Amino acid sequence: MEEHTPPEGLNAGLASASARLPKRRRVDVACNACRQRKSRCDGVRPVCSACSRLSLQCMFEQITPPESGKTAEKRPTYEELSRKVKELEARLNSRATTGSHAIDTPAPSATEEHVERLPVEDEATVDELATQVFNELPERNIGYFGAASNHAFVRTLSAAFAYQIPLMVQSQQHVSRNPGQYHSNSSFRSPSPSPEQTRRRRDAHRIVEPFVVPQEQELVELLNHFFITTGAVLPFVEKSAFLPLTKDAVWRTTRSGRALLNIICAHASLTVNPTNAEDFYDRAVVLLEAYTLHGASLELIQALLLLCSFQQNTQRSTISWTYHALAVKTAIQQGLHAPSSYEVHGAQMRELRKRLWFGVINQDRLLSTSFGRPCLIPAEHVQVMAPTHEALAMEQMPSFSKHHHEGLLYFNFLTSLQAFRYEALVKIYDYNISMKSSTDAKELAVSRLKLICELETWRSNCALHFDLPSSNEVQTWSSQLCNSNRFRILLMIQLHAVTMLINGPFLLNCLQTWEAEAKLTPKSNPLLGALVQMLEQDIEAASELLKVVSHLVNHAPKFMLSNAAWWICNFNAFTASLHLFGTMLILYRVSFSAHITSIDTSMVRKTLEFGLEVLGAVGQQSLMSLRGRHALHKFLHVFDSLTSTTEQHAEHSNLQSNVKTSSAPTELGFDEYYAQLVSQSTADYFSMPHANGMDFMNADFGLNIFNFG
After folding, report:
1. Region annotation Disordered: residue ranges (predicted)?
2. 638, 674 in Cβ contact below 8 A?
3. Cα(582)–Cα(589) distance, rounded to whole angstroms?
């Protein structure tokens, strides 16, 4: 028989290729699945790469190696490592209870690398990070907060107030000469940590077991609770994707799928068991490790969006910017931005992908306007048509309930409303790259008026499906009625927030550039009428929002967390208070007040005081809310000291004439002294107390917001 031999060139090629092949790393123990399939196992624990790729159950059995002449060092087993970790935790807890700060912990060895820990380095809350913005030497790199943010508003407002103080001093005959008592006794002190915050400090470096699966009954209850609460407000996750829900099905899913399941359970647990919510959140973060984030899937985008929402509503909104950027990257990698990528899918999948893409866009608009940063998704990249009308969606997805269809319709109107945020960034905030405060006021007035008119058109269209309630109507509702009308309430809050966003630059421009001593009349300056109209609308928006938020805090305490609305309520309660104080400064100016007779200054003052109460109620342990209230209270003290008019003194002539005011500070004049007081109040607002890393990460988590009574 003739022997067939490969060509000489082929042999040479195979030899060279074989020489180039890297050697596989040998492992001591292969998993059971790889041994049964006689496949190579890389030994990665707790799940090897092959089992993770094939969604197989991965188990390792320790096999006693055959005795050899060489004495090999015995590697610790997973059980031994777990026992060692528990012993270390016990030692740490015992040291913590005795008050010792010097804890000797051994450095992690190479054999402990497979134990996954919670990456707490990125877990600083928005309050702790953002309050460092104006430190001369910030403790941490907290990033840039631009024109549309509350930080920029505070900075501009305080500068305008300090500039106006000399003019206010000159115009008043009676100025309080004893501000020092308030100043000396009002330095801000961070709140004492709650028991829950203390627990989180102690457990910040605890071991996280990402593959723990709750009982099936608990999973089903949490899923059902999620889809009737947060899941209806963020309708880009399908409940049918989790059915049938069994432990085996959960075990076979991918890491991104497990992360999605855990963050869903975290949302569902917020109003039921906050401690469990934190455990689910920790698992989701650990599951979203670097290898998982390199990929792209719908489950990964869903998990990232829900993770951002959870972070925002548990005082972690600064870190949500990082996960939002990952969501944008994954959505584009998945092709959600390209209309052609939808053609290969059926009607139901197309709608799901659209809602997911516009969920990323909505979050992009919200975070960009809140943090004062350019949008990551420009309008030119939004070429996919918005999700279909609710009636068409009902025909295509008849299995959904009517309650879910209302959520889809709400999502569509929210998407169109969030587009106004982008328009505001483009037309009056210069894409959050620079503040157009020096721009001609006429341009701001025209841009603002156009946006407000378009916003009124949106409101008229929305009324055909969701008649937005007034604050007076909401204040008559019980907790159950608030939940029944939640989509109307949420859209109303968002509408007032967008209105204040549009009005902000015009208000600040007035404070910065309009001369206080100018003889402004409606004839000499036609913009005075535009200013009055803006102030009236801004006061109404701020007042309506504050009344609704106050009612929700006092009469429907679970509403905000059940509908992922705590952050938007807390953020805009502070925004409303800032706008009201700016309005008070404008109304005080003599040149304006003579022509602004339609606005009651005392009413604005009462609304501001009410706003500070609301901010304290909704913010509670939020450091930003506490510092914001403190700074505004000090601003009000200075304002009151400077606006003690002759008429006010005459009302109390018998008493006031006998009161001797203390002498003013000898080193400074009144105007400079009050200006420094305002500047110091602003510095106190943005300063951060020195703390070690653990305190910094956990000092303001603020789980007190979960005490519902």
Report:
1. 93-114, 174-202
2. yes
3. 11
Instruction: State how far the Cα of 491 lies from the Cα of 468, in Å rounded to an integer.
Output: 7
Q: Under DSSP, is residue 581 helix (H, G, I), strand (E, B) or coil?
A: helix
Q: Which residue has the tokens 């009902």?
A: 394
Pair of tokens at residue 150? 């509350």
Q: Establish if 667 belongs to a structural domain.
A: no
Report d(CA 392, CA 487) in Å as an integer: 20
Q: How many domains does the chain have?
A: 2
- Cis link prior to 244 (omega < 30° from 0)? yes
CB of 557 closer than 8 Å to CB of 709: yes
Residue 687 has a pLDDT of: 57
Does some domain include residue 623? no
Q: What are phi and psi of 526, to 5 degrees?
A: -60, -20
Rg of the chain, C-alpha, whole Å: 30
Q: Is 500 left (phi over 0), alpha (psi -120 to 50) or beta?
A: alpha
Neighbours of 222 (CB within 10 A): 23
Nearest one of 367, 373, 466 to 414, comparing CA atoms: 466
Instruction: List the structure tokens of 451.
Output: 């946006």
pTM (predicted TM-score): 0.75
CB 351 within 8 A of CB 407: no
Residue 708 in any domain: the answer is no
Residues contacting 668, CB < 8 A, separation 6+: 676
Distance CA 497, CA 455 (A): 12
Q: Other C-beta atoms within 10 Å of 388: how many?
A: 17
Cα(572)–Cα(495) distance, integer angstroms: 11
Q: SS3 of 207, please? A: strand
Calculate the average pLDDT of the chain: 77
Give the CATH number of the domain where residue 40 resides.
4.10.240.10
**Domain edge (last residue) among 544, 579, 598:** 598
Residue 232 domain-assigned? yes
Q: Can you give the residue range of the structural domain that contains 593?
A: 206-598
- Per-residue pLDDT of 510-547, as tens digits, reads 888 775 444 555 655 678 889 999 999 999 999 999 99
* pLDDT for residue 349: 92
Residues 6+ apart with CB under 8 A from 231: 237, 239, 264, 267, 407
CA-to-CA distance for 218 and 224, rounded, in angstroms? 10
Q: Name the token pair of 176.
A: 């309080």
Q: Is the pLDDT of residue 467 over 60?
A: yes
Phi, psi values for residue 68, rounded to 5°: -135, 175
Q: How far apart are CA 15 and CA 13, in angstroms?
A: 5
Closest CA to 535 of 575, 500, 570: 500
Sign of CA dihedral 626, 630, 635, 639: positive
- Distances in Å between the alpha carbon of 680 and those of 190, 585, 636? 17, 19, 14
Q: Residue 397's Cα: distance from chain center in Å? A: 32
Tokens standing for 535? 């102030």
Residue carrying the six token digits 């040479």: 12
- Tokens, residue 391: 């009636």
Per the CB < 8 A criterion, the answer to whether 280 and 269 are in contact is yes
130 neighbors 318 (Cβ within 8 angstroms): yes
Q: Which of 545, 569, 598 is the last residue of a domain?
A: 598
Cis peptide before 65 (omega within 30 of 0): no
Residue 366 in contact with residue 308, Cβ under 8 Å?
Answer: no
Structure token digits, residue 101: 């700060």
Tell me the percentage of the chain whose pLDDT exceeds 70. Answer: 66
DSSP letter at 77 equals: P
